[in-house]
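Standup notes, protein team

Yesterday: finished cleaning the Pelolinea submarina set.
Today: MarR family transcriptional regulator with acetyltransferase activity structure.
Blockers: none.

Input for MarR family transcriptional regulator with acetyltransferase activity:
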Amino acid sequence: MENGNSKIKAIRHFNRFYTRQIGLLNQGLLDSPYSLTEARVIYELAQKETCTATELGSELNLDMGYLSRLLAGFQKKGLVAKEPSPKDGRQILLRLTSDGQAAFAVLNERSSQEINGMLHALSMPEQTQLVKSMQAIEALLGPRPQERPAVVIRPPQPGDMGWVVSRHGALYAQEYHWDMNFEGLVAGIVAEYLQNYNPQKERGWIAEVAGENAGCVFLVRKSEEVAKLRMLLVEPGARGLGIGKRLVEECIRFARQSGYRKLTLWTNSCLLAARHIYQQAGFQLTESEAYHDFGQDLVSETWDLDL
């Protein structure tokens, strides 16, 4: 226990030393009007042409409410501009203005000067030792390389259907600014599925990653020969693992085994990732129509796959 306490004291002592050394306790970082967090936001924005507030908050591990207030202050000072995404007008992109780029240039130059000042006091071997020590700390405390997490596809269990409704409502509001009418639509689809469930002709699948729900999809009977794919969803943190593709493949496999001749689905043109999965699976766009619902101007699409 004593050995553990001495290690904790040593780490805390180093933390206090390093925060003093690089000026983190000063009122403004690098003799600037910006706090450490504000400077980090400016730096991250300078590394990208554009990004969303969600991406920025995830990268810096910042509370979204706090980040929103910080960005509003930057926008008021003319450091940050907001503009709709050319790919999806419902997403807002952030970028540094010319004044913001100038503020970054000052911070970047002062940071380089400060580091050069620290290095100048050390010999070349000491500089090499310092850099290697910092790399060792980063390697030990940073995220470890992980194997691709295992994905489990299973039937829905009690409690899953409430999750399906809740996550559809929350994610579509967050990513596309759809209102609660969409959550109501999903709730109606789920209720109808549960009330009329035919295990020989209908099926649902839940994807799990590390024991947590990460995605879902459902296949329901539309007619004797036509099935409908519904409610495909993949959690943001689980995207890139091929979950959407696997869920759609499960639907196609079951539809063929159940004797359906066609699989159809309804989606919207703004759901680019889902549309890509459907195209890759062989679905064809057969109908599209502009409409207004869920608080947005949208384009509905029907996609069909002959089985």
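Follow-up from PR in the comments: The mean pLDDT is 88.
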